[in-house]
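Project outcomes to date are best conveyed with an example. Our students and postdoctoral researchers have been running inverse folding experiments weekly, and each run begins with a structure described purely in tokens. The record below, which covers 172 residues, was selected by the lab manager from last quarter's runs and is presented without edits.
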């Protein structure tokens, strides 16, 4: 009678196995990355990693990058309605409403009615300007961390590529 699985016997076999220790992933996290076939998956991954850098720094000022982004947008526009903010960030209305609610609750943003009773116009308060100034140094620190890893040419290339991808995705 012929044995079905000749390699599977009751004899003892030595097997070499390797288990990566967590410290190795911390020192070389890129080694843990999967090769993702999809543009969306790759972009979402890079966004999570970059967001983590900014949030780590901005947390020291009591903010997250989404909140800091809205504060800087309102500082640049002086006043904007929710539709304009949503379009400028390509952010869905629910997420924007939640983030604006947090900023309103902290007293960093105020809201008033627009020409249309349904329109709400948002602007920074003095407290919001102070919070933004407090967070600026931490935001710059996050920028320096990323820029240091990319180098000046990589930084410039990244910004151009992100702009082209954003425009292409909006046109698609």
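After processing, the design step wrote out the following sequence:
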């Amino acid at each position: 009678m012929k044995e079905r699985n000749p390699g599977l016997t009751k004899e003892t076999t030595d097997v070499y196995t390797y288990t990566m220790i967590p410290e190795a992933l911390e020192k070389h996290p890129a080694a843990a990355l999967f090769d993702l076939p999809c543009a969306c998956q790759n972009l979402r991954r890079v966004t999570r990693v970059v967001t983590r850098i900014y949030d780590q720094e901005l947390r020291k000022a009591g903010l997250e990058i989404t909140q800091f982004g809205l504060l800087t947008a309102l500082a640049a526009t002086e006043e904007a309605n929710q539709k304009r903010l949503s379009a400028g960030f390509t952010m869905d209305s629910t997420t924007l409403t939640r983030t604006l609610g947090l900023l309103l609750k902290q007293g960093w943003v105020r809201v008033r009615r627009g020409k249309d009773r349904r329109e709400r116009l948002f602007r920074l308060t003095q407290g919001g300007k102070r919070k933004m100034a407090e967070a600026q140094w931490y935001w710059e620190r996050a920028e320096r961390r990323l820029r240091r890893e990319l180098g000046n040419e990589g930084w410039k290339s990244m910004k151009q590529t992100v702009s082209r991808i954003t425009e292409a995705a909006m046109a698609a």
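Confidence is low (pLDDT under 50) at residues 15-22. The radius of gyration is 24 Å. The training component of this project remains on track.
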